[in-house]
Specification:
The complex is a heterodimer of chains A (about 575) and B (about 100). Chain A has about 575 residues and is mainly alpha-helical. Chain A is about 70% helix and about 0% strand. Chain A has a two-stranded antiparallel ribbon with strand order 1-2. Classes of the chains: A mainly alpha (about 575), B mainly alpha (about 100).
Chain lengths: ~575, ~100
Amino acid sequence: MTITAWTFTLVALSFALYIGIAIWSRASSTSEFYVAGAGVHPVANGMATAADWMSAASFISMAGIISFLGYDGSVYLMGWTGGYVLLALLLAPYLRKFGAYTVPDFVGDRYYSQRARRLAVVCAIFVSFTYVAGQMRGVGIVFSRFLEVDVTLGVLIGMGIVFFYAVLGGMKGITYTQVAQYCVLIFAYTVPAIFLSLLITGNPIPQMGFGGADQETGTYLLDRLNGLHTELGFAPYTSGTKSTLDVFAITAALMVGTAGLPHVIIRFYTVPKVRDARISAGWALVFIALLYTAAPAVAVFARTNLIDTVSEQPYAEMPDWFTQWESTGLITFDDVNGDGLVQYVGPAAADAGGAPVENELTIDRDIMVLANPEIAQLPNWVVGLVAAGGLAAALSTAAGLLLVVSTSISHDLLKRGFRPDITERGELIAARVSAAVAVVVAGYLGINPPGFVAEVVAFAFGLAASSFFPVIILGVFYKRMNREGAISGMAVGILFTAAYIVYFKFVNPAANTAEHWWFGISPEGIGALGMVLNFAVALTVARFTPEPPEHIGELVESIRIPRGSGEAHEIGA
Amino acid sequence: MTDHNAEQMGQGRGGMPAGSPQEYWRRNIRYVAVLLAVWFAVSYGAGILLADRLDAFRIPGTGFPAGFWFAQQGSIYVFVVLIFVYVFLMNRLDREFEVDEGDDE
């Protein structure tokens, strides 16, 4: 079978599976719609969390980014996994005990304030939409390249599927679909990684393979890659070019941001007990780590393969995948010196005589994972599998995010805000309608992606880090923290982070270089500083304003102790 | 169960938790502090601040420079272990202070 036939078959099969699960797990109450009736097994929840978390960015882009950044790419690996330690130790058990449906619920109740709740709702919706736009773009890329359909049609099909199971099944449908999507995506990621590892190093375990020796030359693969990099004028692969402080700040912002993302936090409301919330964070990280430890291996294999395939080779003899990606505009070649060979070189490249060599090839780093099986000439079905996996990753994350948006509107804004007398039935209808509207908006963003999708992702993490994380931590660990402190902390954290990012990304992008950054911290890492500011302001303001009312102290006491989590739901709801 | 614990139990009201909630919370904070210290050491320590110095060494039997390995592999493995250690410690602590949630049904 051809690549296209395999892709069609595998994508269609996986979609049929998702729809089947959606029909089987329809939601019939708000509790099922919001938190799957709090009856999800911790291992299943771990898998669902992993699928929810690993987006098109993790599946499609991450290994590619690492393969171009080398050591500097570590910020994503550590940042997007280390956050789960914070989540497990500092947030998940307490939020589960509190037993609400949403993050704004916790903020609003703990800080006895509608204003705090609304501020949290705005942040949750903004963060989620930012993210969804990226997912839909991922869906578009996969469809246009592998199924050769129009991007618009691709996004519409994706929307249809998400619409079906998110609107019908709510959290319950999403959870069980995500379990299936996790299985699809991890299989699709691991299979090519094992193939590549065997091919290049003879070791079937990619995580170990990329530390092994190259089969052809017998030298360590990493040494060989460092050698190629130096020869071609790139920085050595295993050491970075970013400043240590910046790497530190970006890692911190991503870690804390991960722990503060509403669509991740909300997953820990779906398990029956506090104990389950703890272990389920552990399982989530196990399932995430399977992909995240394979990604740097894939990055090294891809990088080596790419350089071996294109460097100093005749343009006329480039393989099929090269010309196909060229037609999508994601690979461009310009034969500057007219020698018919591809010069793929870094900024420090020089020829034998010491004259600088110009780079002639640009490659969009998003395509590395998708092109990888073809570059390594793996069987056609593997290529199709990768396409199905990429779609699973994008759809599962999109669904989780859409649920946050719909819950924020029907629960936080209507039920707990403007329309407290709304019936259970009315709330469920409102939740479905807002999920439907959110799908349409997300689809629109996917078809007409704002040019700044990549830029706004920094926003999502920065805002989550500088807003939610400190107020939740203080809400659990510092009984004296009051409404005034929390609101001013959140406001300062968000405004500072947003102002910094907006300035460097949109107002004055020309100044977006290390010498203009504060302390050399890039906009990607500024959320870490925003978080520190949030903590500082909140603690200072709380000292000079009235203590929280007595019942808040009792609430905090009860959050800290696991026993009695069963009843918490009715109280919270 | 030690005598000390039995005595505390006797003081609890009508089968309420033995040991005080304050003590439970203090122990919890201590566990979290130790685990987060390890969390910081492997990622920010070995993976970032000391990465350049550690790169002079290799993980034995492999081509991994040590700092690079911690940043791209080792820290992630340690993160997973940390969460499971935390779960084990906390479940034990819950039972000791009788604030656990009991078995299913």
